[in-house]
Backbone:
């Protein structure tokens, strides 16, 4: 197992945000966490990347207990994160933002940079532009590209589709599928549960700091409780937009017009 979260409890002051979360992510998977605002999704990702300390429980990565490892070292062992709200550096160029993703590494980064530009041609076109002048969708691409610069084994994505128009949402999901196809394991947090479940292998449902359900992602698409709570209710999956295969959707994503 690549990533194992064992019974983690995390607090903000006296407030318990995570009350015993257990989950695992196997190499090569896309796993999604779904749940309402405040369920603990962001806190779970921050605990994995080392931005929040554990009160109790354990985080294991590649078989090693990393519960007390500082965040910058977790980047080096292979945990990459694109944070909620993107967190790009607005005054820095796109390219310098990308280099920041690999600050903990040394050596030649031209190969990583070329791969990010291949995945996101829009970033290549705008590499000298200030990050803060990019559109919402482009900033999301930049946040993901920056995380990829450190060659993560697992990529943690926190609400990558937040605030984006449907067409951009589709592009971001297609790119996530492509990143996974190229060998990166993905742990995806999404409010857009429908699309997240369509691209994921497995899913966990979080409620108020607990895992209340875990299953194959496609099974949750047909789960009446999940449908009612997270998929806008209704029966049957006919309205579901099928996830486009990466081979066809990514080239389209590259040529899409500049809008969000
Ligand atoms: N910085 C913070 N200070 C205090 N409480 C927080 C903070 N961040 C999150 N929380 C609380 O922790 C719980 C989980 O939040 P979060 O992980 O952000 O949920 P989600 O990402 O699922 O919306 C919520 O009750 C939230 O109010
Ligand atoms: Mg959140």
Residues:
């Amino acid at each position: 197992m690549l990533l194992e979260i064992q019974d983690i409890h995390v607090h903000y002051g006296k407030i318990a945000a995570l009350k015993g979360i257990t989950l695992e992510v196997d190499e090569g998977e896309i796993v999604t966490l779904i749940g309402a605002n405040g369920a603990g999704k962001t806190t779970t990702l921050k605990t994995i990347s080392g931005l929040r300390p554990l009160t109790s429980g354990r985080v294991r990565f590649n078989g090693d207990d990393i519960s007390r490892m500082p965040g910058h070292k977790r980047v080096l062992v292979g945990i990459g994160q694109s944070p909620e709200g993107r967190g790009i550096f607005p005054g820095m160029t796109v390219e310098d933002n990308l280099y920041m993703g690999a600050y903990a590494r040394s050596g030649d980064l031209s190969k990583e940079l070329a791969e990010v530009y291949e995945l996101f041609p829009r970033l290549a076109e705008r590499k000298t532009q200030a990050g803060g002048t990019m559109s919402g969708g482009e900033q999301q691409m930049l946040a993901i590209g920056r995380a990829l610069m450190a060659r993560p084994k697992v990529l943690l994505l926190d609400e990558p589709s937040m605030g984006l128009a449907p067409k951009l949402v589709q592009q971001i999901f297609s790119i996530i599928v492509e990143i996974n196809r190229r060998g990166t394991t993905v742990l995806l947090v999404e409010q857009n549960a429908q699309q997240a479940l369509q691209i994921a292998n497995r899913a966990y449902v979080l409620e108020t700091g607990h895992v209340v359900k875990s299953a194959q992602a496609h099974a949750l698409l047909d789960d009446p409780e999940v449908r009612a709570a997270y998929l806008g209710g209704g029966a049957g999956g006919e309205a579901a937009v099928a996830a486009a295969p990466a081979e066809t959707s990514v080239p389209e994503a590259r040529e899409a017009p500049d809008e969000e």
